[in-house]
Write a structure and sequence with these properties.
alpha+beta; 2 domains; 8-stranded antiparallel sheet; 7 helices; about 20% helix
Length: about 375
């Protein structure tokens, strides 16, 4: 699913560095994979191949950021003013939380916009893991280009009282102002769930087949058709939006739909991906990676999590067991991974319990609303 470029070895620590290919050099975060996990990279590649063959379509990750601080920053904010004095910006800076690096982003007294990743078009999904660290949360939301235009998903809007899907722009009526309030429409979603302060949430905005879908923590909140005025071929800049509050970002990922292999049966897909390897052998190796989520070494924990993200449905049973009764950090990491892998809104059918709610009629913009594998020496790159 991902393309890992040339390995650069960090001799001081004995850890290999890998660059995740994206759409432009500025979107290439550095990812560390400890040597102890290097032999499991081909397994992740095989699992990803199996998933691709079973599904018959492929979602390619074009952007992945863990906010580790290694390499050139892949984010920027047009609403955070630069500081004159040396040192980090108090409103946009890397910090640490629960033993790992995160990005602190604050919108002081108004709207806050954070550009992440490259521009997208066609079918795509924007996926972040974030939490509000403000006394009064308001928005952990996702838009493209600007906040007054769809597609967009407002999670915890209006001081954390409701959720919205933005489906505009629409074709203006004769004589209407294309930039006026009638040019944009939104759909009210159920006001549950909302942002829980100091709690990690996985927030996803998915644009697929002329629709926009909103997901929070693996639950489909709703979906709606995009308006006729929406141009799927236009290039759009993904944005994270907050209002008069502060959040921490732990992960950000962008995927786009790419042509995949022809869909085949599970037996044929297994033979193509794994050859003579048995299911029990694969599950034993995946169990080792899940066990590494509780490893004493942080780099090993992070590396195992990175590989497990590529394994699709095959790792779900072991992750379910860890999430139910594992050690504290292992339990948290397994739970976050399950939110990605089950349900997988961009690659798997929605589970029966996650049917979209009945949506309220589309309303015009309220005038008072302020939108608030690895590589070792001599090896060729491993492609995911």
């Amino acid at each position: 699913m991902r393309t890992l470029s040339r390995a650069i070895f960090a001799g001081l620590f004995g850890i290999s560095q890998f660059v995740l290919a994206a759409a432009a050099p500025a979107t290439r975060p550095v990812i560390h994979l400890p040597p102890a996990l290097a032999e499991y990279a081909p397994l992740a590649q095989q699992c990803a191949r199996f998933q691709e063959l079973v599904l018959g379509a492929t979602w390619r990750t074009i952007y992945q950021e863990d906010f580790s601080g290694r390499g050139v920053p892949t984010w920027s904010s047009p609403t955070v003013a630069p500081v004159a004095q040396p040192g980090p910006n108090p409103h946009l800076r890397l910090t640490r939380d629960e033993g790992r690096s995160v990005l602190y982003f604050e919108a002081a007294g108004g709207q806050g916009l954070l550009h992440i990743g490259p521009k997208v078009s066609g079918d795509f999904v924007v996926d972040i893991v974030a939490k509000s660290v403000s006394e009064f949360p308001c928005d952990i939301s996702l838009f493209c280009d600007r906040i007054d235009a769809g597609p967009g998903f407002q999670f915890g809007a209006n001081v954390n009282t409701n959720n919205k899907l933005w489906v505009g722009p629409v074709k203006p009526r004769p004589g209407a102002d294309a930039e006026g309030p009638n040019a944009q429409k939104y759909v009210e979603l159920p006001a549950e769930p909302l942002i829980v302060k100091n709690t990690w949430h996985r927030v996803q905005m998915e644009v697929r087949e002329g629709q926009i879908l909103a997901w929070v923590d693996g639950k489909l909140l709703g979906k709606a058709p995009l308006e006729d005025g929406y141009d799927p071929t236009a290039q759009r800049q993904p944005l994270v939006y907050v209002y008069s509050s502060a959040i921490q970002l732990r992960e950000a990922r962008i995927e786009t739909l790419a042509p995949g292999a022809k869909k085949v049966s599970r037996d044929e897909a297994w033979a193509k991906a794994f050859g003579e390897t048995k299911l029990d052998q694969v599950r034993e190796k995946l169990q080792f990676l899940v066990d590494c989520l509780a490893h004493d070494d942080e780099a090993t924990r992070n590396g195992a999590e990175l590989l497990l993200k590529r394994t699709g449905e095959l790792a779900v049973p072991a992750l379910e067991q860890a999430a139910a009764g594992g050690m504290s950090e292992q339990k948290v990491r397994a739970g976050l991974l399950l939110r990605v892998l089950r349900p997988r809104p961009v690659t798997q059918p929605s589970p029966p319990r996650a049917q979209p709610p009945a949506l309220q009629p589309i309303q015009p913009l309220a005038p008072e609303l302020d939108l608030n594998q690895s590589i070792t020496p001599g090896q060729a790159p491993v492609r995911f």
